[in-house]
Write a structure and sequence with these properties.
This protein is α+β, with helices and mostly antiparallel strands. It is built from 8 helices and 4 strands; from the N terminus they run βαβαααβαααβα. The protein has one domain: Nucleoside diphosphate kinase-like domain (Alpha-Beta Plaits). Bound molecules: ribavirin triphosphate (RTP) and magnesium ion (MG). Belongs to the NDK family.
Amino acid sequence: KSRLAQQKERTLGIIKPDAMSKVGQIIDAIFQCGFKVTQLKMCRLTRNEAFQFYQEHQGKTFFECPDVSNLINFMTSGPVVAFELMGVDAITKWREVIGPTDSAEARKTAPMSLRARFGKDNTQNACHGSDSVASAAREIEFFFPSVGTVRQNTAKFTDCT
Ligand code: RTP
Ligand code: MG
């Protein structure tokens, strides 16, 4: 084992409502990329929950625009699968695996990415990934609150080495 122990990181990923029929292929890609899945659940967000989850985007046009690119309408349109991934440099690596925000751009610049393969456009883009250590901490706590995990009967790894 290397003396320079590489720092493991956690990140929060979501399979968005538009890609729920591709859950099998996406989970398969997650394991092939070497991530460990340390928590996972399927759920359907309420409007309040989606609003809270994406609070950093309040005020942006796509957040509450009246057309089909409305982020809240999209994220509450059906169930999602949310998961915590663990691995070396997991935040950056997972965002590389999912690709650029716009699925059409992803098909040009990152054709193997999940958004290129399974996304539709700039809004319906198949997957989410936390963008920083602080976002990852907030988003993991959002989907997998550390209080009450016994009553929720969730299986939780504390160490995945
Ligand atoms: P995410 O947060 O979902 O991982 O995606 P991201 O960082 O690549 O993109 P972000 O700027 O954080 O935007 C969050 C989500 O909002 C939707 N969006 N729609 N119509 C638009 O112009 C637009 N821009 C963003 C997408 O679903 C995006 O993933
Ligand atoms: Mg983002």
